[in-house]
Automatic annotation (TrEMBL):
Domain FAD-binding FR-type positions: 4-111
Protein name: ferredoxin--NADP(+) reductase
Name of the encoding gene: fpr_1
GO molecular function ontology, one term from the record: ferredoxin-NADP+ reductase activity
Stated family: Belongs to the ferredoxin--NADP reductase type 1 family.
Record field: catalytic activity: 2 reduced [2Fe-2S]-[ferredoxin] + NADP(+) + H(+) = 2 oxidized [2Fe-2S]-[ferredoxin] + NADPH
Highest taxon of source: Bacteria
Amino acid sequence: MTDSKYTRQTVTQVHTWVPGKLFSVRVTRDPAYAFQPGQFARVGLPADPTDPHAEPTVWRAYSMVSAPSEDWLEFYSIVVPGGEFSPRMAQLRPGDALYVDKTPFGFLTLDRFPTGDHLWLLATGTGLSAYLSMLDDPAVWQRFDRIVLAHGVRTADELAYRDEIAAWQAAAPGKLVYLPIATREPLPGMPQERLTTLIADGRLEELAGLPLDPAPARVMLCGNPDMLADARKLLGERGFAPGRRGIPGTLAAENYW
């Protein structure tokens, strides 16, 4: 490559979850590309898709869905209407190029929590991505006694990767609690509410069967900025706090917007 900061990878698979709205792209992975579960990549597209030699000029950040042990990279995305990047990314097909910055980014990683018994993974929309990579890593299952994965969406068809989540539940019975929460339609056994409302009124704890207590619990937040701001405030009132100045934290968050 003329620019050593990135590599050219090849699309191998495109999966549509909701037509025109949600999709995943799988690409080859450079053998030298190493990352931790929860980190994100900068991926690029050329300004002129018809020129096979064009350099990438448009870049966006996407968390890895795939585990570090896989020989591919997978990204989960929403189509932003009128966007410069995601509509084009959704149109990629096997054999097309996607460029990946050689440096992974982000700190929503398990090393933020050197201790803890319960891991709460709270996501809205495509913020689910980072947690899929974590759950595909044996280290998370060894470190925590119980894991709660709560995924807030608008409608049931936006609940992606349910087969993978079900497989993890089957592999470790009773260890992973999956809470699919939709705000615009009822789901069996689940309230039709925002995640932050369920934190505030205590129903999220009831659904999980675990206390949201900073003594045993470690919480990760990944999603839209409004959810993060509200959840940080609610959890802060319960004693959760990010790590600072060498003091381990009980809360980690990352915008996914």
